[in-house]
Amino acid sequence: MTQVKKVTGSVTPREEQKVLASQKSANIPDYIWAEAKKELKMVKGRFRIYKAGQQGGTHPVTWRKYPPEICPMFSKMMRDGEVYEIPLYAARFINGYDASAKKLNGNIHSCSYAKHGFKMSSGSDLQPSQDGMTESGGGIPVPITAIVQYEKTIGFESLEFGTGIE
């Protein structure tokens, strides 16, 4: 059976996080405090490494989302397949999601890398290029080089339901 590791000591104990989140600072806007209060909740899950050749190893996870007045930086060396209890904001970062990134629908693609390929602009309605223009006006369709998908390097699988880890 997998042993549960508590990483709250490397982040901040639950009691201290509540105290930090309740201390309002004059230079931090209220909407940041409200978001932080939701994301300081501890969630339990299994850490995964998806990168080929590194499964079963360890991976450093370091991230600061909020100012130090709210909570300290999350920094932990995590082992593949182990169960951890970490703050919700750290779990979301590992999974490439940020609730405050509204224009990106929350998908920030952290902890992943982009794979490039050919993509047709606006579906199959590709405008012909000027090269190879024929007398009838048709040209040669040219695909656009773009990001076609993101490959995750690490992830955090929730062991709790309804946590909103994404």
Describe the structure.
The strands form three sheets. Strands 1-5-2-8 form a four-stranded mixed sheet. It is globular and about 55 Å long. The longest helix is centred in the first third of the chain and has 10 residues. The chain has a domain of 114 residues. It is an alpha+beta fold and 166 residues long. The chain is built from four helices and eight strands; from the N terminus they run βαααββββαβββ. The two termini are 26 Å apart.
Q: What are the SSEs and their pairings?
A:
Layout lengths: L3 E3 L1 H4 L2 H9 L7 H10 L2 E8 L8 E6 L10 E6 L3 E5 H7 L17 E8 L24 E9 L1 E5 L8
Task: Output the keywords.
166 residues; alpha+beta; four-stranded mixed sheet; globular
Entry summary:
The protein has 166 residues and is of the alpha+beta class. The chain is 18% helix and 30% strand.
Helix content: 10-25%
Structural classification: alpha+beta
Low-confidence stretches: 6-19
Question: How many beta-strand segments?
Answer: 8
Distance between the termini: 26 Å
Radius of gyration: 22 Å
Total DSSP helices:
4
Mean pLDDT score, rounded? 74
Going across the biggest sheet, name each strand in turn.
1-5-2-8
Q: What is the 3D form?
A: globular
Major sheet description: 4 strands, mixed
Which band does the percent of strand residues land in?
Answer: 25-35%
Order of helices and strands: EHHHEEEEHEEE
